[in-house]
TrEMBL record:
Domain Helicase C-terminal, chain residue ranges per copy: 319-513
This enzyme's EC code(s): 3.6.4.13
Ranges of Acidic residues composition bias in the record: 350-365
Native source species: Mycena pura
Residue ranges of domain Helicase ATP-binding in the record: 48-226
GO terms assigned for molecular function: ATP binding; hydrolase activity; RNA binding; RNA helicase activity
Family note: Belongs to the DEAD box helicase family. DEAH subfamily.
Protein name: RNA helicase
Broad EC category: hydrolase
GO cellular component: nucleolus; ribonucleoprotein complex
Region (Disordered): 348-375
GO process terms (BP): maturation of SSU-rRNA from tricistronic rRNA transcript (SSU-rRNA, 5.8S rRNA, LSU-rRNA)
C-alpha cells in the first residue's frame, strides 16, 4: 500500500523506517522487566512504521496489552514530543475518564523516569501541563474544547484517541473533527503554508469492533490500517449460573465467599453497578473475611480452646475485654439460632440502599452469610484485602487497587464499569460479573432522565471476563444464565451519542464553524430529531440565530431543517467547559456583582449534587448514587441548615440552587476540609471539584469579560436581596425551556384551593406529556407550592420528579424567552395601558398579561 500523504513521502525518502529510536530514555529496572511481558512491546516496530507511513492508524488490543502506557512511549522514543526532532509537537492522548487520564500520566511518567511537567495530564479541574510537556494525557472533552480556539491543533504532532470502543460522545465527535483537521494540516503542509507538520492520528480500541471508524468512507477516504496486538491472554473459563436471580448483590457475595474458601490464591474482581452496592458488599465481606474479622475469630477460638494450663492467655483476654468476651461466648453457644432468625428477618426487608439495617451487629451478618453459604465460620484462615473502586471515590483511594495486597491476604476488588477497560488491576484471577451496569438513560423526546440498571453487552461481558486471564488461567463467574446471555444481550453497547443530550457538542461544533451539523461525519449519526432538538435548545438560549425553520419547528415538531448559525453570545458560551445552559447563565452574569455567585452556582450544578442523601431522610424510591453515609446520624443534615455558617441565601426558600450556593460559601469560610464535609454531610470530592472549577471559570471569565474585573473570589459574602433576584433571573435564562407550572394555574382545576406543601401537587412541564412533581428533597417541598418554577433535572423513579427547582416570576419568562413565546394583539387595560397576553412554549400556556412595551422581539 503506497503512502499518500506528503509527510509519508518525506518519511520514506529521508528516514529509514528502521531507525525508529531517536530519543534515549532511561527506565527504572522493574519497569524494564515488566514491559518485557507486555504483548504490545514486541509490536513496536510495525506500529511505528504504520504511524509514520499513514495519517491514521487503528490499534486493537485486549485490555492490559499495554496500549495506553506503551504507545505514547513508542512515539516519544521515535522523536514525537521532543523539540529537537522532526516531530516536535506534543503527543496528545485522550481518555473518556478523568481517573484514567490522571493515573496513566503518572504511570507513564514513572516508566520514563520523567517529571510530571514532562508527562502531564489535563482534566477539567486540574492540570500538570507546562511549556516543557512532551506527553499530555487529557480527557476527550479537554481536546474538543481546544479545537475551538486552535482548529489545527498546532501544538500537537500526534493525537492518540484511547478507548475508542467505549464510544463516548466526545470521543466520537473528536474522531469526526480530527478526520477534517488531518486533511487541513496535510493540505497546508503540501502548499507550504503551515509551519507545523501534518498531524498523525492513532485510534486505540480494546475490541475488534472498529468498522464504524475503519470502514466509514465519510470519515476516512482511504481505510486506515488496523494493527491487532495479539493478547497474551491466558484461557478464562466461563461459568454461567443455571438461573438468573434478581438479587445479584447477594449472589455476588455468595460466589465470592465460595471462591475464597474453596479455590487457590488469586485476586477476585467483582463487577457491580454502583457505589451503594459496592460499599454494601465491601462491608459485608469485611465483616466476614476482613483482616479484623478473622483476628476476632482467632481470639474467640483461642478463648474457647484455652485450658487451665494456658491460664495467662485466658486472663489476658478476660482482663482486657471481659464484658465483650462474655457476650461473644454467649453468642457462640446460645445465640446462634436466634441470630440467624433475626438476620433473616432483617434481611428479608432489606435492600442495599438501607445502610443502617445491618450495621448494628456484624456478627449477625456473619452468621447470616454462614447460613447462606453453608460454611462453618471457622474454616477460613486467609483474610480478604477488600478494595472498592468507583468514580466518586477519592483519587488516592482509587489508587489502592494498584498496590499489592498485604502478604498472606487475597485481593478482592469490588468495582463498577471503571475496571472493565480503563484500569488494569494486577493479579486478578477470578471475575464475578453481575452482568448489569447502571446507565443514565435520557429520553430524547422529553428530556426525562432515569438511572437504570440494565444488561451489559456481549462485548462488555467479554471484556469483564478477560480481566481474569492477565496473570494466568482464570475463571469468570457470570451471575446469569447462558440462555439470557445468548438471547437478551446486545452485541455491543449503544454509542453515548444516541443516549444523551447533545446540545453541548452541537455548540462546540458550531463554534468550530461546522454549521451543517447534519453533514458532520459522525461515526454513528444521531437521528435528525435529536439534532433538531439540540439546535432548538441552543436557539432558546440565544446561542444560535433563530432561523425561520427552527421557529416554525416550535409549532410543528416534525420539521427537521437545522441551519442555525452561532451568535456572539453563543461564541462566548462555547468558551466555558460547561453545559450550554450554565454558560448562558455566566454570559449574562456580570450585573449587580452577581458573577462570583453565578460562578459558584454553575460550578456546583456542573459537578453535581454535593449533598449526601440518606435513604429515609428523604425518600422517593430513588436509588441515590450516594446512599452510604457511614453511619452518620440523620438529624445532622437538618442541623446543618441551622448552623451559623449558613448563608442568608437559604433563608428565603426560593431556590434549591441557593442551598448549593450556601454550602459552597460555608465550605470556603470553614477553610474547606474533611471535617467540614463529614459534619455537614457533603461529599469532600465534590466540594473539592467545585472549588477548583470555580477558580477555573473565574479565570476564563476574567480573560473574556474585560469589564468584569473580578478574579477568583474564594470567600463569598452572602448575596443581598437584589442579587438573589438577579440570580433567579439568570437561572431562568439558563433553564428557559425547563419550566413547570402548577397545574391548577393552567386549567383552574382547583382555583381557590389552599395548599400547604408541595406533596402530591401536580405540575406541567413544557413538552412533558405527564404530570411532574417537586422532589421531596427540595427546599420548597414543605412550603406552599409556587405557581411557576424552572428546574435543572427531570428524573423518573416512582414518578417524574423535578429537581433543582427555582421559583420564577412568569413575567421573566416572557421577557427572557421571547423565542418561546407568541403574543396576542395589544389591548387596552382598564387603566389605559397597552397590554399583551404571552403564550409560552409548545403547549401554548397562557401567561399573565404584560405591558406591550415590555415585549422585545428576538
Ligand atoms: P491497555 O491500555 O492495553 O489496557 P495498559 O497500558 O493500561 O494496557 O496496561 C499495561 C500494564 O501496565 C498492565 O499490565 C498494568 O498492570 C500495568 N499498569 C498500568 N498502570 C499501572 C500502575 N499505575 N501501576 C502498576 N502497573 C500499572
Ligand atoms: Mg488502556
Amino acid at each position: 500500500q503506497l503512502p499518500t500523504t506528503a509527510f509519508a513521502q518525506q518519511v520514506l525518502h529521508s528516514t529509514s523506517p528502521t531507525a525508529l529510536i531517536s530519543v534515549n530514555v532511561s527506565r527504572p529496572p522493574d519497569v524494564v522487566e515488566a514491559r518485557m511481558l507486555l504483548p504490545i512491546v514486541t509490536e513496536e516496530q510495525p506500529i511505528m512504521e504504520a504511524i509514520l507511513l499513514n495519517p491514521v492508524v487503528i490499534i486493537c488490543g485486549e485490555t492490559g496489552s499495554g496500549k495506553t502506557t506503551q504507545v505514547p512511549q513508542f512515539l516519544f522514543e521515535a522523536g514525537f514530543g521532543s523539540s529537537t526532532s522532526d516531530n516536535p509537537g506534543i503527543i496528545g492522548i485522550t481518555q473518556p475518564r478523568r481517573i484514567a487520564a490522571m493515573s496513566m500520566a503518572a504511570r507513564v511518567a514513572h516508566e520514563l523516569s520523567l517529571p510530571s511537567f514532562r508527562v502531564s495530564y489535563q482534566i477539567r479541574y486540574d492540570a500538570t501541563v507546562s511549556p516543557n510537556t512532551s506527553i499530555k494525557f487529557m480527557t476527550d472533552g479537554v481536546l474538543l474544547r481546544e479545537l475551538a480556539t486552535d482548529f489545527l491543533l498546532s501544538k500537537y504532532s500526534v493525537i492518540v484517541i484511547d478507548e475508542a470502543h467505549e464510544r463516548s460522545m466526545n470521543t466520537d465527535i473528536l474522531i469526526g473533527v480530527l478526520s477534517r483537521v488531518l486533511k487541513l494540516r496535510d493540505d497546508m503542509w503540501k502548499a507550504g503554508k503551515a509551519d507545523v507538520k501534518p498531524l498523525r492520528l492513532v485510534i486505540m480500541s480494546a475490541t475488534l469492533r472498529v468498522s464504524d471508524f475503519a470502514e466509514n468512507k465519510t470519515l476516512f477516504s482511504t481505510p486506515p490500517p488496523v494493527i491487532n496486538v495479539a493478547a497474551r491472554q491466558h484461557p478464562v473459563t466461563i461459568h454461567f449460573n443455571r438461573r438468573t436471580r434478581s438479587d445479584y448483590v447477594t449472589e455476588a457475595i455468595k460466589k465470592t465467599a465460595k471462591i475464597h474458601t474453596r479455590l487457590p490464591p488469586g485476586g477476585i474482581l467483582i463487577f457491580l453497578t454502583g457505589q451503594n452496592e459496592i460499599t454494601g458488599v465491601c462491608r459485608k465481606l469485611n465483616a466476614k473475611f476482613g483482616v479484623k474479622a478473622l483476628e476476632r475469630k482467632r481470639q474467640k477460638r483461642q478463648f474457647a480452646d484455652s485450658t487451665v494450663e494456658e491460664h495467662d492467655t485466658v486472663n489476658m483476654n478476660v482482663d482486657i475485654q471481659p464484658a465483650h468476651a462474655d457476650i461473644e461466648a454467649e453468642d457462640l453457644d446460645l445465640g446462634h439460632q436466634q441470630a440467624d432468625d433475626l438476620a433473616f428477618d432483617v434481611d428479608a426487608g432489606m435492600t442495599d440502599e438501607d445502610p443502617d439495617a445491618l450495621d448494628s451487629d456484624e456478627d449477625t451478618e456473619e452468621h447470616q452469610l454462614d447460613k447462606e453459604l453453608g460454611l462453618d465460620s471457622d474454616d477460613v484462615d486467609v483474610p480478604m484485602h477488600i478494595v472498592p473502586l468507583y468514580s466518586l471515590l477519592p483519587s488516592e483511594k482509587q489508587m489502592l487497587v494498584f498496590m499489592a495486597p498485604p502478604p498472606g491476604s487475597r485481593l478482592v476488588v469490588v468495582s463498577t464499569n471503571v475496571a472493565e477497560t480503563s484500569l488494569t488491576i494486577p493479579g486478578i484471577r477470578y471475575v464475578v460479573d453481575c452482568g448489569r451496569a447502571k446507565e443514565r438513560r435520557y429520553d430524547v423526546a422529553n428530556g426525562i432522565q432515569a438511572f437504570q440498571v440494565s444488561w451489559i453487552s456481549k462485548a462488555s461481558a467479554a471484556q469483564r471476563a478477560g480481566r481474569a486471564g492477565r496473570t494466568g488461567p482464570g475463571h469468570c463467574y457470570r451471575l446469569y444464565s447462558s440462555a439470557l446471555f445468548e438471547h437478551h444481550f446486545d452485541q455491543f453497547a449503544q454509542p453515548e451519542i444516541l443516549r444523551m443530550p447533545i446540545e453541548g457538542v452541537v455548540l462546540q461544533m458550531k463554534s468550530m464553524h461546522i454549521n451543517a451539523v447534519v453533514n458532520f461525519p459522525f461515526p454513528t449519526p444521531p437521528d435528525r430529531a435529536t439534532l433538531f432538538r439540540a439546535e432548538k435548545v441552543l436557539s432558546y438560549l440565544g446561542a444560535l440565530g433563530v432561523s425561520s425553520s427552527v421557529k416554525k419547528g416550535l409549532m410543528a415538531a416534525g420539521d427537521s431543517s437545522v441551519d442555525g448559525q452561532i451568535t456572539e453570545l453563543g461564541r462566548l458560551m462555547s468558551l466555558f467547559p460547561l453545559s450550554p445552559r450554565f454558560s448562558r447563565m455566566l454570559a449574562s452574569g456580570q450585573h449587580h456583582g452577581c458573577l462570583p455567585y453565578i460562578i459558584s452556582i454553575v460550578s456546583a450544578l456542573s459537578v453535581g449534587d454535593p449533598f449526601l442523601h440518606e435513604e429515609g431522610l428523604v425518600s422517593d424510591g430513588t436509588d441515590n448514587e450516594d446512599g452510604d453515609v457511614d453511619g452518620l446520624v440523620k438529624t445532622g443534615r437538618k442541623e446543618f441548615f441551622r448552623t451559623q455558617h449558613m448563608h442568608s441565601a437559604l433563608g428565603n426558600f426560593t431556590s434549591d440552587v441557593f442551598r448549593m450556593l450556601s454550602v459552597v460559601g460555608a465550605y470556603e469560610f470553614a477553610g474547606g476540609g474533611l471535617q467540614f464535609c463529614s459534619q455537614h454531610f457533603v461529599r469532600p470530592k465534590a466540594m473539592e471539584e467545585i472549588h477548583k472549577l470555580r477558580a477555573q471559570i473565574s479565570n476564563i471569565v476574567q480573560a473574556n469579560f474585560p469589564s468584569a474585573g473580578t478574579g477568583f473570589v474564594p470567600k463569598l459574602v452572602p448575596p443581598n436581596e437584589l442579587q438573589l433576584k438577579v440570580l433567579r433571573q439568570l437561572l431562568t435564562a439558563g433553564f428557559v425551556d425547563q419550566v413547570a407550572v402548577r397545574k391548577d394555574r393552567l386549567d383552574n382545576s382547583s382555583a381557590g384551593l389552599k395548599y400547604t406543601t408541595c406533596k402530591g401537587v401536580s405540575y406541567r412541564a413544557m413538552g412533558v406529556p405527564e404530570d411532574v412533581f417537586i422532589h421531596p428533597s427540595s427546599v420548597l417541598a414543605n412550603r406552599e407550592p409556587p405557581e411557576y418554577v424552572v428546574f435543572s433535572e427531570l428524573i423518573r423513579t416512582t414518578r417524574v420528579w423535578i429537581k433543582g427547582v427555582t421559583v420564577v416570576n412568569p413575567a421573566w419568562l416572557s421577557s427572557l424567552a421571547t423565542s418561546l413565546c407568541t403574543f396576542s394583539k395589544p389591548t387596552k387595560s382598564i387603566n389605559g395601558e397597552l397590554m399583551v397576553v404571552p403564550r409560552f412554549g409548545s403547549d401554548g400556556w397562557e401567561l399573565p398579561a404584560i405591558k406591550a412595551d415590555k415585549v422585545r422581539t428576538p
